[in-house]
Every structure is written in C-alpha cells, then in structure tokens.
Amino acid sequence: MFFFILLIFIGYYFYKRRPGANSFREYILTNNSNSSSSSSQELFKFFNKLLVGQPSVPEFKLDDYYCFTVVSFRDGSATYVGFLNKWYLWSKIEVVGSNGRGKRKNSATEMQVIEGLAYEDKETAIRAKGKKDYYTAARSFLSAAKQFKKVGDESNLLEAANCYEDAYKAFQQVKQTDKALEALETAASIYEGNVRQSTRAARIYEILAEQYKKSNSLQYNLEKALRMHRKATDLFELDGDGRFLFSLISQAELSAEIGYYEQAIDLFDNIIKLSVNDSILNYKIKNYIFWQCLCIIALDDWVRLEKKFKEFIEQYPSFADSRECAFTDKLIQSKNSCDPSEFATACKEYDQLTTLTPWQTHILLEAKKVLEVKDLR
Fold first, then answer.
1. Key word NAD present in the record (predicted)?
2. What is the pLDDT of residues 112-144, one digit of tens each?
3. Which of 4, 71, 91, 114 has the most CB atoms at less than 10 Å from its CB?
C-alpha cells in the first residue's frame, strides 16, 4: 500500500513539473542567445542580430505524456524530451531541401549556438592560460577549435585553426606531445585549405617535420617527418616563397637518411640546378653534388657515378676545386683498384676536417663492406 501511494506521489510530482510549450520556446531562445559576460562576445551577438535577426523557434508539435512531454519540429529535424522542467535533445536530423536551401535555413540557429559556445570555450582557455592552468587551457582550446570547425565558414575555420595552434602550445606545456602534434597538424590542414594561408600551413608542416625527426622523442617518425617536408615544399613552391628551396634540401637529406636513394638523387639534381642562381646557396653546390654522389654509391652503381662525376667537374668549377671532389675521386679510384684499405683511409682523412653525418657514414661503411667482400674473391 505504501509503495502504491509513493508511486502516485512520484507520478504527480513528475506531472506537475513537466515542461510545456512556453518553456520549450524559452529553452530554444535561451540556448540560441547563449549569453556571455565578455564584451567581445556581446559585440559579436549584437552584430549577429543585425545580420540575421532575432532567433525564432521553428514550428513544432508538442505531445503531452502526463509525466513528460515530447516536442518534434514540423520539418522532422529534431526531437526533444522534457521532464522535471528541463529539456533534452533526443534526436536531430539535418533537413536538406531540393534546392539545397533547407539545410542552411534550418541549421542557421544551431550554428549560432555552436559559434557562441566556441567563443565561450576560447575565453575559458585564455583565462586558464593566464592562470598557467595549461591542462584546462589545452582542453578548452581544443573544444573551441572543434566547434568553430563545425560551423564551417571561412572566418570560423580560421578561428578553429588558431585555437588548434593554441591547444598545441598548451599541450606542450603539460608534456602531452602526441595530442599537441595532432592539434598542430589539424591546424595546418585547415590553413592548407585556404589559399591565403598556404605559407602559414607550410611553416607549420616544417615545425611538425622537425618534431618527428627528434630521435629522443616518443613521436620519432622519419616517414611522417618526410611527409610533412613534402607538404611544406609543395606549399612554399605554390606560394612562390623563397623558403621552398630550403624545404627541398631538408626533404632530400631526409630521403637519403631513410634510404630512398633514387628519390634523393632526383631531389639533389633539382637543388643543384636551382642553387646556381641563388646567392646564398651557390657556395654549397659542392655539398649537394657530393651528397648525390653518396646516394649513387649507396645503390652500388659505380658506372653511373663515374659518368655523373665527370659531368659535375665540367659543369661546376666550384665542385672541381673542392675537397668533396677530391674525396669522391679517391673513392672511385679505391673501388676501381678494389682496395678497401685505401677507401677507409680516404674516408678517415675527409672526416677529420669535415664531419660526416650518420647517414653518410652508413653509406660509406656499407660500400667498404662490399669492397672487402670483392677483395677477398
């Protein structure tokens, strides 16, 4: 008996506190206005009202189930459930008209809400950053970025990219490098989609490449670093930015380090030709020629090397007079005489004055091993 009375009491309590049509209208308008204490947010909403007008509630149907109510928009785009004087979104479907205008009309109010929430998250992040609460700042910047991105127009996409960059910096502060790099890469991809921001995207891809090249990092990934360099190179070239050549050099060196020797040879060929007319890089042509020669040695193609070596001496006097040229000549002679000892001596003498990088040392050691095997025969 007591249980039955309790059940009646609970049912009556829910019945009296079920929200009605006026409550739903107030809920929709309140959520769309999404008030904020920030003056910048108030200014945004003021101009927003001038442009799109005061938000209105779409036509809806309300069903009363005594203990709760259900509201469905007439266009079928959303369903809400109300109980205990509160409303909850049950389901949402975007409605697109035959002329493509339906979706924009029905989602305009929702996009305003999302944009308002994004600005609030951004302001929360800025306050947290000021208090050096970088964990909260990172999460709030990330939340803001996702919401700006969801709105999708150009200005909001740029806001999203900026927030992703800020999230990257905050995640770096709390040593969450994986999340930091993921956020930064998302920012780069957004900038890449905007013609006016291609150089900015390229700079970020260069930063990402350097991060993935750090051997003491858990994110060490040379393949991914190479992809980042490629993206940067393409974007710099597309924008006519002078950093294109420097990015191309990084791409070529990394290709050689990974072992993509044919790819590195093609890249160094291009770099050599472009460096002739560059006052800064012209004096380094001898290095690029030498590095290309090393990639050919890595392929164990000495016939090709001798042919290219003669062409380089004829075309580039600065290489012909360099230590790199003399060293390459000694390597060829050692190979032709099948003398691994002479090969090793030449490497040691060169390395004493010009330190060889790990990838260059690796190629020469492998070439020496091949030469030793042939010498034993």
1. no
2. 888 888 899 999 999 999 999 999 999 999 999
3. 71
What does R_g of the chain's alpha carbons equal in angstroms?
Answer: 33
- Helix segments in 198-243, DSSP class H: 198-212, 222-238
Nearest to 32 by CA among 85, 144, 107, 100: 107
Helix 340-353 and helix 358-376: axis angle, to 10°? 160
Query: Can you tell me whether residue 1 is helix, strand or coil?
Result: coil
How far apart (Å, rounded) are the C-alpha atoms in residues 230 and 177?
22
Residue 81 has φ and ψ, to the nearest 5°, of -115, 135
Is residue 155 within 8 Å of 193, Cβ to Cβ? Answer: no
Q: What is the mean pLDDT of residues 330-356?
A: 93
Asked if 312 contacts 303 with a C-beta cutoff of 8 angstroms, the reply is no
User: Which pLDDT tens digit goes with each residue over 261-317?
Assistant: 999 999 999 999 999 888 788 889 999 999 999 999 999 999 999 999 999 999 998
Amino acid at 363: I
Provide the whole-model pTM.
0.70
Please give the Cα distance from 136 to 141 (Å, whole number): 8
Task: Provide DSSP, 20-78.
Answer: -HHHHHHHHHHHHH---S-HHHHHHHHHHHHHH-S--PPPEEEEE-SS-EEEEETTSSE
Looking at domain 108-215, its CATH superfamily turns out to be Tetratricopeptide repeat domain (1.25.40.10)
Q: Would you say how long the chain is, in residues?
A: 377
CB atoms within 10 A of CB 224: 17
Weakest mean pLDDT among 4-18, 36-50, 160-174, 243-257: 36-50
Which residues pair with residue 72 across a beta bridge? 61, 79
Token pair, residue 219, equals: 């994110």
Residues 184, 207 contacting (CB under 8 angstroms): yes
Residue 136 · residue 125 · CB < 8 Å: yes
